[in-house]
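From the shared-data thread, chain only:
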Amino acid sequence: MNSFRRIMDSIYQNCIPVTHENETTNRLMHPEYDDSYTEIKSFPEAQLAEIFFIGWSIREGQLGAFSLSPDNTTSLRYGLTNTLKTQRHTHNYLELAYVLEGEFCQNIQGRDVCFHKGECCLIDTNCTHQDYLTAKDARVIFLGISNHIFNKVLSENIPEGILTEFFGTALLSQKEVMQYLHLRPKEEEDERIETILGSLLDELIHLDVGSEYICRGLVKRLLWHLCLAYDFSLSKEQTKEMNVLIGDEILRYIREHEADISIQDLVLKFHYNEDYFNRLLKKREGVTYSAYLQNLRLEKARELLEDSSLSIEEIIDQCGYHNKGFFYKIFVEKYKMTPAKLRDSK
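Structure, as tokens:
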């Protein structure tokens, strides 16, 4: 048995029966009490390592549940008499569910989805879902990851692809796309993910100097492994909507920073390579990045010439150009007249 499962077993063995008092205080599992209400769960306050775990183990009609964070470990035991739904909810953080044993089902955005041993579900912020608990034996662990650590990790070269786009959408805080990824291991047995999760659990249990940095590195390692060792997909509708929103955000950012932006700035901001932005602009606007930016700057120059009293030199500077001769050349190519003539013709 690997260290991850040993840690889990040790925690579950110490579960105490749930009472009204300890459940009210700890709220490890939330049975549905109102099917018309969606609960909003926030990331726990004052989490030094910026992650936390919740685990569920169903055995012989009993649910052992634990919560593990840097300053608190709680484990409770519930009785399950029949199929149980948790309260429908969303998070303001990202959640990764990993199925150790059996089967785990959720209703996500009104759709029932089942996950099997070795599979993961990565749920974006603000994605409405609820969990199904049955008397069948199963084990699931949930990893909550703060948006702050996600920002840090995503800026450190996660492999490009749909998972990066998923992360990017979450970080852009676009609430219109509420999505999830169903991740399946490419190999039948994937012990690597449990090794990484076990290391994270161990860091939280034995919180020591530098643990927050170690946890950040382990989260990066976990996401990197998911990129390389797991298959995942979005529906065509989700992919299309997600790509549109990412494209909208990139175009908005270019327009807001047109005077001093570079394509390297976009790489740092959105975590795609340079070719991605050229492909996006070619598809959306029919031109390359440099041509799109040049058009924006020249349009701004024309507006300033027509609607302001700024000198031509001041306008050239405000539009992000430092070579007056080059500016005159491209301006005349576009408008068939010099800046001075355009101003005089208004």
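The mean pLDDT is 82.
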